[in-house]
């Protein structure tokens, strides 16, 4: 029986990062993966969607090139080639991660791992062989899968999950997307600009409901400009197959209504992959559907850790990676800095992009904090005007007494890149003065960050 210092089950952005760091630190490490190295994020989530969005953005740039003084012929989008490129990108990165694992001497087992006890794992290999391996410690990093509502079950043909949507190379005329979180919003943007008549259906009272309310309101405004229809405070009560398409029975603010579409994409969240892992037999405590962990990523069973989507919300790739590093530090008895839940950035890659970190204004109110708001619009920034992206704004939630940045929210061009500086600021407890005194290169979009900090001090130059 093979023996290891650490076995990681699951090779997503939490699992492979933990495995590589473990091996770098000198631990004999194994990784068990049933499907593709890189997990959902790399193969069927974060990466392929961004590849498709790149194609869509380029298509839109060509369509509006005349405004920049460039005359082009009619542009056409080849959906099959767009999807094929996204699969090539995912495959390339999966192979790259496999190379890194082998480079760091991580043993890879292709199969399904199950805990027999805290130190013994049964591996049902993809070739049919069943083996057992021993380990001093184990990290569960099995990720999540698309959530399905009990009365709306995806079939991969007319009712889709995000995975189905990423392989869709023939587009319908009409589509509805159920759920206006990051996944739903990104697919709405993609399909609308590839020519699909699109309707978003959201049960809560705003699209991007987890974002600051002002951000959600601005995104709704921008989606209306793009002719993306959004129905909020609305639920899909029933789906009827009428042969050629689907009839959706909706319940909204004005009562019952019907919507006929060719396809429905279900984007109502994810469900953690905890089935068949041996958790119940081992007595591992659960927190609802998630594995319960402490701030060191430990479960209640000694030597068993959990990270990423199985360990609780938010289900984000970078949160999983950070938790993997925390777990390795803990295993090696190094100084462990717990994950700061208020310092996890969130990004949505539609256009305009949305990014945030820390407290929204609504949460600041709920917590009874003494704060003030600073907000600067993109149209005040020279680079934004030069490149023709003037929609949107940046917003800070600032603690009055200390000037500390409690939260930062951005909607606009390259918001998902601009959030990095603010992630550092929130994580390290920096103040608006710290940011304002940092020289930002001109002309750049990042000047909006400096300007928002200066505005918080009452010293903005361009506002």
General description of the model:
The chain has 463 residues and is α/β, with parallel strands linked by helices. The chain folds into 3 domains: 3-146 and 271-339, 3-Layer(bba) Sandwich (FAD/NAD(P)-binding domain), CATH 3.50.50; 159-268, 3-Layer(bba) Sandwich (FAD/NAD(P)-binding domain), CATH 3.50.50.60; 342-456, FAD/NAD-linked reductase, C-terminal dimerisation domain (Enolase-like, domain 1). It has helices at 15-24, 39-44, 46-63, 79-103, 162-166, 182-192, 213-225, 279-282, 317-331, 361-366, 382-387, 415-427, 432-436, 447-456; strands at 3-9, 29-33, 107-117, 120-125, 130-140, 144-146, 159-160, 174-178, 197-201, 229-231, 235-241, 246-252, 255-261, 263-266, 270-272, 286-287, 290-291, 304-306, 346-348, 353-358, 371-377, 393-399, 405-412. It has a 5-stranded mixed barrel with strand order 1-2-3-4-5. Strands 7-14-8-9-10 form a 5-stranded parallel beta sheet. The chain is globular. It starts with a strand and ends in a 7-residue tail after the last helix.
Give me some keywords for this one:
about 25% strand, Enolase-like, domain 1, 23 strands, single chain, five-stranded parallel beta sheet, about 475 residues, alpha/beta, FAD/NAD(P)-binding domain, 3 domains
């Amino acid at each position: 029986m093979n023996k290891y210092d650490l076995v990681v089950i699951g090779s997503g952005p939490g699992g492979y990062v933990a495995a590589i760091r473990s091996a770098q630190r000198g631990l004999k490490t194994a990784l068990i993966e049933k499907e593709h190295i890189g997990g959902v994020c790399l193969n069927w989530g974060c990466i392929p969607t961004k590849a498709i969005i790149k194609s869509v953005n380029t298509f839109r740039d060509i369509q509006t090139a005349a405004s920049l003084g460039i005359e082009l012929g009619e542009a056409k989008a080849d959906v099959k080639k767009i999807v094929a490129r996204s699969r090539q990108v995912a495959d390339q990165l999966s192979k790259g991660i496999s190379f890194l694992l082998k480079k760091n001497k991580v043993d890879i087992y292709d199969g399904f791992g199950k805990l027999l006890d805290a130190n013994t794992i049964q591996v049902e290999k993809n070739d049919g062989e069943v083996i057992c391996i021993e380990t001093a410690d184990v990290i569960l990093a099995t990720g999540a899968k698309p959530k399905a509502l009990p009365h709306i079950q995806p079939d991969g043909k007319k009712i889709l999950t995000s995975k189905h949507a990423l392989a869709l190379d023939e587009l319908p005329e009409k589509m509805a997307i159920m759920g206006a979180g990051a996944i739903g919003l990104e697919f709405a943007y993609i399909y609308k600009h590839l020519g699909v008549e699109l309707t978003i259906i959201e049960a809560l009272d705003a699209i991007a409901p987890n974002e600051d309310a002002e951000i959600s309101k601005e995104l709704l405004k921008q989606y209306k400009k793009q002719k993306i229809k959004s129905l909020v405070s609305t639920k899909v009560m029933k789906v009827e197959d009428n042969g050629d398409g689907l009839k959706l029975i909706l319940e909204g603010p004005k009562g019952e209504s019907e919507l006929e579409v060719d396809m429905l994409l279900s984007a109502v969240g994810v469900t953690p992959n905890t089935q068949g892992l041996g958790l119940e037999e081992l007595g591992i405590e659960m927190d609802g559907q998630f594995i319960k962990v402490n701030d060191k990523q430990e479960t209640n069973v000694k030597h068993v850790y959990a990270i990423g989507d199985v360990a609780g919300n938010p289900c984000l790739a970078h949160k999983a990676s950070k938790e993997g590093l925390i777990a390795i530090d803990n295993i090696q008895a190094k100084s462990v800095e717990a994950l700061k839940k208020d310092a996890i950035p969130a990004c949505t890659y539609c256009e305009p992009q949305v990014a945030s970190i820390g407290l929204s204004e609504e949460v600041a109110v709920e917590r009874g904090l003494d704060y003030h708001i600073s907000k600067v619009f993109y149209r005040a920034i020279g680079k934004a005007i030069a490149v023709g992206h003037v929609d949107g704004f940046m917003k800070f939630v600032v603690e009055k007494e200390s000037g500390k940045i409690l939260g930062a929210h951005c909607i606009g061009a390259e918001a998902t890149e601009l959030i990095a500086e603010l992630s550092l600021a929130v994580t390290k407890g920096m103040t608006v003065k710290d940011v304002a005194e940092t020289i930002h290169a001109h002309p750049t979009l990042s000047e909006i960050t400096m300007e928002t900090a200066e505005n918080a001090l009452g010293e903005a130059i361009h506002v």
